[in-house]
Amino acid sequence: MLFRKEYKMVLRVAAMLMLLIMIPVLTFAESVGTVNCSSLNLRSKATKNSKALQTLSRGDSVRIMSTSGDWYKVNYGKYTGYVMKAYISTDAAPAESSDSKSTASSGSDVASLKKIGKPAACEVGAKGSNVKKLQKCLAALGYYQGKIDGDYGRETKSAVQKLQKELKLKQTGNADSETIAAMFGENTAPVAKGTTERLNWFRDGIDRIPRGATFTVKDCKTGKTFQCKRWAGANHLDAEPLTKKDTEIMNGIYGKWSWNRRPILVKYNGRIYAASMNGMPHGTTTISDNQFAGHFCIHFYGSMTHSTKKKDAAHQNAVAAAMDYTW
Predict the structure, then answer these.
(1) Is residue 97, in this structure, part of any structural domain at all?
(2) Do 71 and 132 sit in the same domain of this protein?
(3) What is the Cα 113 distance to its own chain's centre?
(4) Does some domain include residue 120?
């Protein structure tokens, strides 16, 4: 009799254990999730640094097997691994129409990128912390699989080209300001050719013309044009006439060097921006043979002086005046 009672008790305990084991399976067996970002790595472990088993795309469906903190354990085809919950929608959403504009970043992507920080425009051959930031952003979106080493080489160029292809941008492989803006989900709708644009310096303008870039300035009142090179500048753009001839043209506009503000148009990469310049050589010079002893200042909408860290009313008035001119 005692044996039979013990036997029945063992059977009951075994049945309860089996039920407990099967509950999670029953809970998640029918749970399906949808990838809500452009590119998502399916990882071998529930960590960001673990091996990527497969790259999933927006709209791909996964079977959710279990949950652990910020991660789902999922099954995708022959692969079983982990994805971050933030990039999986568990409610079905209508598919994006085929003729809608492609974007690299969903809301979840942008939130992730903002934690990394927005890199400045840069190009192949660049090195340093800004390139590392770019590589981290590309890796977060699933375009870059290489080392975060701050070296803008072949792998980084290829990743940028893949991003540009999805964004329907020119596939140069250089991370220009338009590519960076689109990566962060900002509007990059093209403007009509020849349109004068108001460039907001601190919102999206500080990197629109990269350091070392060559651009053309047109003086609104005289119509004279000359080429410049960006040297530096944080509160506004610091520039130098590119050649001796460009210095002569600029000097002819002023008559003599002066701090007076003049409305100008700046043309770079096919786009035209309203701006203001002064005509006084000062500070650092990097071009030794242009006969311009220093650099001069170019202000855009919202920019400030270096000394006061405030907007200069005369410069801002000249920028507003330049908006009435066309190239």
Answers:
(1) no
(2) no
(3) 8
(4) yes
pLDDT band for position 189 (50/70/90)? low
Phi, psi of 91 (to 5 degrees): -105, 135
Number of domains the chain is built from: 3
Same domain membership, residue 242 and residue 157: no
pLDDT per residue as tens digits for the range 88-119: 887 433 333 333 334 455 555 666 777 888 89
Residue 76 within a domain? yes
- Can you tell me whether residue 272 is helix, strand or coil? strand
Dist. CA 259–CA 70, nearest whole Å: 57
Round to whole Å and give the CA distance between 213 and 239. 10
Token digits of residue 243: 């050649």
Which residues neighbour 187 within 8 Å (Cβ) at sequence distance 6 or greater? Answer: 181
As beta bridge partners, residue 52 has 43
Q: Are 205 and 257 members of one domain?
A: yes
Distance between CA atoms of residues 226 and 211, nearest Å: 18
Q: pLDDT for 256-265, tens place per residue?
A: 999 999 999 9
d(CA 179, CA 185): 10
Same domain, yes or no: 154 and 239: no
| β-bridge mates for residue 263, sequence order | 276
**pTM for the predicted model, two decimal places:** 0.48
H-only helix segments in 98-225? 107-116, 129-140, 154-167, 177-183
Taking alpha carbons only, the member of 145, 143, 137 closest to residue 110 is: 137
67, two tokens: 């949950």
Say if residue 213 is in the same domain as residue 314.
yes
Would you say residue 220 lies in a domain? yes
Domain span at residue 237 reads 196-322
The predicted pLDDT at position 101 comes to 37
CB 85, CB 70: distance < 8 Å = yes
Reduced DSSP (H G I as helix, E B as strand, rest coil) percent helix, strand, coil of the chain, to 5: 30, 30, 40
Q: What is the CATH number of the domain that holds 45?
A: 2.30.30.40
Instruction: Say which CATH number the domain at 117 has.
Output: 1.10.101.10
